[in-house]
Amino acid sequence: MSIFNEDFLWGGAIAANQYEGGYQEGGKGLGPVDLLPNKDENRVHVMYHPELAMKEKFNYYPSHQAIDGYHYFKEDIAMFAEMGFKCLRMSVSWPRIFPNGDEETPNEAGLKFYDELFDECLKYNIEPVVTLNHFDTPIYLYEKYDGWTNRKLIDFFVRYASVMFNRYKGKVKYWLTFNEINILQVLPFLGGSFDPEKFENPLQTKYQAAHHQLVASALATKLAREIDPANKIGCMLAAGEAYPNTCNPNDIWAAKMLDREGFFFIDVQVRGKYPSYSRRFFEEQQLEIKQEKEDAEILKNTVDFIGFSYYSTKVVSADEQVLSSSEKTDGNIFSSLENPYLPKSEWGWIIDPMGLRITMNTLYDRYQVPLFVVENGLGAVDKPNEAGIIEDDYRINYLSEHIQAVGEAVKDGVEVWGYTPWGCIDIISAGTGQMSKRYGFIYVDLDDNGVGSFKRSKKASFDWYKQVIASNGEKVGRNNDEF
Ligand code: BG6
Q1: How far is CA 320 from the centre of its chain?
Q2: Per the domain annotation, does 475 fall within a domain?
Q3: Measured in whole angstroms, how far is the alpha carbon of residue 436 from the centre of its chain?
Q4: Are the beta carbons of 255 and 243 closer than 8 angstroms?
Q5: In terms of C-beta density within 10 A (0-12 exposed, 13-18 middle, 19 or more buried), how is residue 459 classed?
Q6: For residue 413, what are the CA distances in angstroms to 159, 168, 359, 416?
Q7: Taking a C-beta distance cutoff of 8 angstroms, is the pair 372, 418 a contact?
Q8: CB of 375 closer than 6 A to ligand 1?
Q9: For labelling, which of 262, 296, 371, 420 has a CA lying 20 to 30 Å from the CA of 307?
């Protein structure tokens, strides 16, 4: 008997800005990612300096064609169906629906694309799990309104959400409002289409923008329920427990503080009000968040579940000397001190399956609402063998260990709705813009400069994951032996 529920949602995850391409087709407007070059042209630096994104001309913009999902989606969904996907997590491109973001009426051509995309999923009984904003606030809103720093964005977002909920009533039941909402603190251009450095107090600006997103998320949650009580709405956190570097209480506190930076957002989305610790933080940082009198009531519209991404844990120290003299390693959004107990990916991300179990237990202890693992995976270089097959045992190992960790969390009593590994088909990397950082079960013939045939082919992990799903998570071992 499987430890996973019969209706457990096995699937995969992609996002419009990394999958679709067709960046101007059907009247689509631009999003922040459409202005970002690839790694060789200093993508990360540009992300932190949006003025460069707006002014400079780069040689290559990976999102413009991405993997051309705009034209290939039927073929791709057929392959997902062959693996037995029960769900597909994807995002809608806001600028495909409202090219500028502040229009009164949506772009019908954009909606037609998603009509077809969702229908194609439903044809195979694949449940769409849809993120409304995955790094995709229209760039026009950056130019005209300074993005989410402006309260007007709430209305624009709610209008967009309302169009989606009405149009896809009965077709889409699972929604996430903002992807990795806590990314706003670190990469506000991606998370909120604004540049905090343009303002006198950047920290204040970020928390003001966060407030607007939290109100918008709560209003969308309310609306989704009014339009269709069957809707299930989730928040989405870039998760991964912070470990103290030592048992020095100062390190323990530093780790707790770092975790709270992320929890701050979902504390509001799950509990319906600002957390008690935020008062001291706002006072000490001398931040004054402007709130309207109706906001407290609006925030009470809390989510049904917590979606989260998990790639690694991070190690934190309170000791300035340790921080300045120690090696750091990369991770999703946050960097970390090295963890001597754990291996790392080729991109330096710490690999920690036990950390997933710990993170899930922390989230469930704290909130007691169902969890949905909406991103997890290994970015790796894949090389075909002599027969032209990609034997991605490293990916199978990674996913196998992480699925087992989810299973352990289930046994610990955590309620989990589903598991959607990131980049189930190779897509461009959000962080680096590379194609060579591959996560998929399906290989896409395309290189870092966008050259290739776009041909899709199965990796060894394709059949492995198919067995995992067919056995409802029982046969997760490397050779599909039992859990
Ligand atoms: C998450 C994002 O931060 O991590 C995805 O939601 C992203 O969009 C994923 O692709 C993996 O990061 P990267 O940089 O390897 O693509």
Answers
A1: 31
A2: no
A3: 19
A4: yes
A5: buried
A6: 38, 33, 13, 9
A7: yes
A8: yes
A9: 296
pLDDT of 310 reads: 98
Any atom of ligand 1 within 6 Å of the Cβ of 437: yes
Measured from the CB, is residue 431 less than 6 Å from ligand 1? Answer: yes
CA of residue 372 to ligand 1 center, whole Å: 17
Residue 419 falls within a domain, yes or no?
A: yes
Ligand 1 center to residue 454 CA distance, Å? 21
Residue 5 makes CB contacts below 8 A (sequence gap 6+) with none
Domain assignment present for residue 245? The answer is yes
Query: Is 36 strand, coil or helix?
Result: coil
Name the residue with the closest Cα to ligand 1, atom 3.
332
41 catalytic per annotation? no
pLDDT at 187 (0 to 100): 96
Other Cβ atoms closer than 10 A to 123: 12
Q: What is the CATH number of the domain that holds 212?
A: 3.20.20.80
Radius of gyration of the chain (CA): 21
Q: How many CB atoms lie within 10 A of CB 202?
A: 13
Which of 79-93, 323-337, 389-403 shows the lowest mean pLDDT across its residues?
323-337
Quote the percentage of the chain above a pLDDT of 70: 100
CA distance 206 to 197: 10
Q: Label residue 335 by pLDDT band (50, 70, 90).
A: confident
Q: Which of 72, 73, 90 is nearest to 452 (CA)?
A: 72
Distance CA 15, CA 203 (A): 28
Evaluate whether residue 353 is within a structural domain: yes
Number of compact structural domains in the chain: 1
Indicate if 180 belongs to the active site. yes
Q: Which atom of ligand 1 is nearest to the CA of 431?
A: 14
Which pLDDT score, from 0 to 100, does residue 477 have? 82
Across the range 39-51, mean pLDDT stands at: 95
Take residue 7 and report the two structure tokens written for it: 């209706």
Options 180, 241, 408, 474, the catalytic residue: 180
Ligand 1: centre distance to CA 429 (Å): 6
| Domain limits for position 39 | 9-470
Q: Whose CA is nearest to atom 8 of ligand 1?
A: 430
The dihedrals phi and psi of 304, each to the nearest 5 degrees, come to: -85, -30
Q: With contact defined as beta carbons under 8 Å apart, do 346 and 381 qualify?
A: yes
pTM for the predicted model, two decimal places: 0.97
Distance CA 295, CA 222 (A): 13
Is any atom of ligand 1 closer than 6 Å to the C-beta of 180?
Answer: yes
Give the number of the atom of ligand 1 that is nearest the alpha carbon of residue 349: 15
CA distances for 251 relative to 152, 242, 284, 316, 317, angstroms = 40, 10, 20, 7, 5
> What is the distance in A from the centroid of ligand 1 to the CA of 124?
27
